[in-house]
Amino acid sequence: MDDNLTDQQQAEVVKQWLKDNGLSILVSIGLGISAYVGLQFYQQSQLRESETASRLYAEVEFALKQQRMSQAQSLLQEMDNNFSGSPYQQQSHLAMAKLHMDTLDYDNAIIQLEFVMENAIDESFRHIARLRIGRIMIEQDELDSALALLSSVTASPIAYTPYYEAIKGDIYAAQGQLEKAKVAYSLALDSLEPGNFDFDFIKMKADQIQTDATPLDSSQS
After folding, report:
1. How far apart are CA 161 and CA 130, in angstroms?
2. How far is CA 50 from CA 45, 83, 171, in A?
3. Global model pTM greater than 0.70
4. What is the percent of the chain where pLDDT is above 90?
């Protein structure tokens, strides 16, 4: 604003500017308020939805612990209908799969795990499901299929590398390919910190492979 204008002239300029731009200012303020209110509503809605999904997941878990399969399946269907794509949906299917695995109902366990692999948005859930299917296939003596499933993952997050390699080691060991098993176990151990349960358990299997291989080496020498 021109400093040479009198106070009255400056006031008139301000009045005229407000007259010319007042509507756009009000619109901008209104839009800002609407956006803020909309964001608050969205956040509250998301929170309520998450709380409802969490309660439903707890009900699924409780039904499964009580082995009320009919109730658990009904709750799982409700989860699929109302919270598709949510972490709680994937956790519910993993919980259902675990019950089937515990009761040696491997076919139905795989159905649940394949659902997670195909529908999970979070990559972590897909890795968990794939690894569990691999273990089931080992139990079913479908070693080649298990190896093909795990090998289909060309790059996995480092957090899952030791588990992929450990299961591959189990497959090779079951196939009698002890050298490949040792390499796989070694790769698994390289990705873990010594001293935790997973490291110790895999190392025990690796040591056993070494023990099993020694007599064979001696007889061949």
Report:
1. 13
2. 9, 9, 40
3. yes
4. 56
